[in-house]
Amino acid sequence: MKLSSLLILVFAPAALYLAGCSSEAQPASAQPPAPSVEVITAAASDADIYTEYPAQTYARNMVEVRGRVEGYIEKWLFRPGQEVQAGQPLYILDLRPFQAQVQQAQGNLKQSEADLDFARRQVSLLQAEANLTAAQANLVKAQQDYDRLKPLVESDAAARQDLDAATAALSAAQASVRANQANVEQTRLSTETQIQSTEGKVHANRGALETTELNLKYGTITAPIGGLIGDTLVPVGGLVTPNSAQPLTTIVPLDPIWVRFQLSEAQYLEMKGGTAKQAPPLELILADNSRFPETGKITNTLNQVDPRTGTLEVQAEFPNPQHRILPGQFARVRYVAEHRTGVILIPQRAVQQNQSIQLVYTLDSSNKVEARPVKTGPRVGEMWLVERGLEPGDRVIVEGLLTVRPGLIVKPLPFQEKRAPGQAKTE
Predict the structure, then answer these.
(1) Residue 229: beta bridge partners?
(2) Global pTM value
């Protein structure tokens, strides 16, 4: 017999004995460990039921900055996107033409004021009145000579020739008085006309001076309102004209910021709650699901429902002191439609939807899984409001649902909410 055959015969019984001992040492059936699940304990709490609508922000009083006078831009004094205040200088035009116009208007005004002062002195009228006084004095003397000579001539004490001379002198003096009186009236009328005309020139020149000074002021273009300014559309050296179709730039006020959203007629009546109830305060949920810290209010509604869509545009305003919100952003507007007390809230992920049936998995006192149908109500943030099927104290499985089935014994752990990095929470 070969050596190899001998070794097989010797060691085979030993191997069989050891295999039998090993099988006797193992238990009849090995039990796997209970799977771990994360659970919450249902508890009664208070909840605000929100109604929300998609919305968009906009600037209600956006202003186009335009020039009021014609000129070339010499300086540009702002940066695009800068916050500007009302009255802040934005552009400076070439001011030299306006300054020359002011000087010319000032000279014209001084000349007209001097002419007015001369007219008011009435030099021509005074001269005419002096001439009238002299003519009246000559008339008195001529009348006296005539009255003295007439009785003498009648008594042949004086020559008739002297009386004729006195009569002629008297007539000449009377004519001279009448002429000077007419001259005085004419001069007075002319002087008054000259005064009024010169006063008119003074007023016109003062108006021209104010106009040129105003044009000089308009040569520095300022911000009509405060807000966020856009880019300049006319560069330095560009021509500014009052009638240009293109504005210089635009300014958008950011505080308050306006929001518009659409409501159906029923939603609008529900929000208003009848004529006796004021509209509730509004919250603004931003694109990152964060809640804007300021609350808003409905300010305007359009005057009719759009027949094409059956909706009504509502406009609300929100304080925006930090200028965090910009026009054109999309957001959600919401308000508290109902406040409930003593309700049960569970995470949405805990609810399983099987066709028209909603289920949650709960644990009994021995940590055995049970399937329980529930009826959910409105959403409250990331939670479901459970209207029927749960009681305070029930333990509900939230995480580990893929590894459980009714009747399975599990190991419960407290639910730890996991949030993706950078994910914001809606308050």
Answers:
(1) 251
(2) 0.58
Task: Classify residue 427: in a domain, yes or no.
Answer: no
Paired sense of beta strands 352-354 and 395-399, if any = unpaired
Q: How many residues does the chain have?
A: 427
pLDDT tens digit sequence for 125-139:
778 788 888 888 888
Instruction: Read off the CATH number of the domain in which 317 is found.
Output: 2.40.30.170
Closest of 311, 309, 314 to residue 296, by C-alpha: 314
The two structure tokens encoding residue 164: 């004729």
Q: What are phi and psi of 399, to 5 degrees?
A: -115, 145
Start-to-end Cα distance in the chain: 90
Rounded-to-integer distance, Cα 156 and Cα 151, Å: 9
For residue 301, the 8-state DSSP code is E
Strands 357-363 and 249-252 come out as unpaired
Asked if the structure places residue 20 within a domain, the reply is no
- All residue ranges of the chain with pLDDT < 50 are 1-26, 28, 274-276, 422, 427
Q: Are residues 236 and 182 in the same domain?
A: no
Q: DSSP readout, 21-63?
A: HHHHHS-S-PPPPPPEEEEEE--EEEEEEEEEEEEEEE-TT-E
Rounded CA-CA distance 217/242 in Å is 14
Looking at residue 272, its pLDDT comes to 67
CA distance 90 to 93: 10
Kindly report, residue by residue over 216-246, the tens digit of the pLDDT.
999 999 999 988 899 999 999 999 999 999 9
pLDDT in tens, 145-202: 888 888 877 787 778 887 788 888 888 888 888 888 888 888 888 888 888 888 899 9
* Domain that includes residue 231, residue range: 63-93+220-252
DSSP string, 106-148: HHHHHHHHHHHHHHHHTHHHHHHHHHHHHHHHHHHHHHHHHHH
